[in-house]
C-alpha cells in the first residue's frame, strides 16, 4: 500500500530492477560521500500541499530518531549524525541528523559517514519517502487516512478488512494508473482467496496457496506467473559457538551445503516455486547488478560423497548431531526434514540430523538475536532495494544489523568498503563479488534457494506482472 500512495526520489523498473530518478531531478556527489539532492518542482501531496526538500529531511529525521521507535530507523545509519539520534543507549543527544541540510525548497544535502557510491539507488525504499506537514501536525488523523504523493490516494479504509485506492488526479509521475482504482481485500484464509479468484470475485491474487500450485496453471487457464523474486533463503550457523568457529568447522559447513539436494527439494517440496541457489544474492539483480549464477561452485552443488568426506575431515558435527532450528508456526518442517534426510543419507546414519522446531516466529527470533542457537538455523532475506550491497553488507559485515551468524572477516569488510567507495558501478559490483567469494570458503550461511513470486489473475484483467519484490505492478493492470 505504501508503494501505491507514495513515490520516492527513485523508482525501480519492474522489468530490469534498474533505479531511475522519479521525484529526484538529480542526485550528485564528487566524492561518493557528500551528496546533493535536487527534486522536481511542482509535485504535490494528495492533500494539495507541495512536496519540498523539507518534506524529505523532516521525514528522514523522524524515521531515524530512536524515541519515535520506527522499525526502519536503521536505513538512515549511513547518514552522519545517526548515532546521535539513535544511540544504543536509547537516549539521543540530538533530535536531528547533522548530515541533513535543507538548502532551498527543491534542494537538500546529505553527508554520509562513509563513502557509498550506490547510495542513490537505495532511495526507492519506503523508509525514504517524503511526509507532508499533516503527518507532524495531526498525527492521529494522518494515521487514520495517510496522505502521500504517489499514483493512488486512499478513498476509504477499514482496518484489517479492505482499502479503496483511487487514482491521484494530481499525480506528477510517469507511472499513472491504467485503471480506475484498486480495492484491496484482506483474507485470513489463502484457500478462500483462491476460491474467489477462480469464481471471478477476486481479480488478482499473489498469495496462491501451496495446495493449489500443482493445478494453478489449468485452474486459471495459464493466467499465472511464477518467477524468482528478490528473496533468498539460507541456513545460518552460530559462529559465536566454539564448536562452529574452528577451521575444521568450515569444512563441516561446506559439507552440509554439498549434502543438500536443492533441485529435488525445490521441485518436490515447493512445486518449483523455489529456484536452487548458487550464490548469496538473487537472479532479479541480473548480471550487471551483481547476480552471478554458480558463484558458489561445487560447495553449493549436490555431492553426498564429497559431503561426507568434508564433514568427517572437519571433525564431524559439533555436539555429535546436527540440529536445524526453525519456527514451527511457519511452513518449514517439510523442507527441514528433507534437508535432514539428505544429510542422513550422505552420512549413512538416520540420526545424524534432526529438525528443531521453535514455537513461534517471535520466540525463534528472540533465540537468534539472543545468541542462543547451538546449530544451524533458518534465515531468509528479502531485498530492500535491488543492489548486491543489500544482500551482503547488512548480513555479513562485522557487527551488521542483520548478521545473525555473527560472521566476521576483516578482508570481507575491507572489500565491501572498497566497493562502496568505488564510483564506477561495474567495478563496484566486481569488488562486491570478490567479497562474496569469501563466503564460499567461510560458509557462515548456506544458500538454499531463491524464493519465487507468484500471482494469478482473473479473465477480467490483463497486463499483470510482478516487480522485483514479487509485488504486482498495480498501476499497469488494465480492465478488459
From TrEMBL:
Chain ranges of the Solute-binding protein family domain: 21-402
Any Pfam family: SBP_bac_5
Signal peptide range in chain numbering: none
Protein origin, superkingdom: Bacteria
InterPro entries, sorted: Peptide/Ni-bd, SBP_5, SBP_5_dom
CDD domains: PBP2_NikA_DppA_OppA_like
Name listed for the protein in its UniProt record: ABC transporter substrate-binding protein
Taxonomic path: Bacteria, Bacillati, Actinomycetota, Actinomycetes, Kitasatosporales
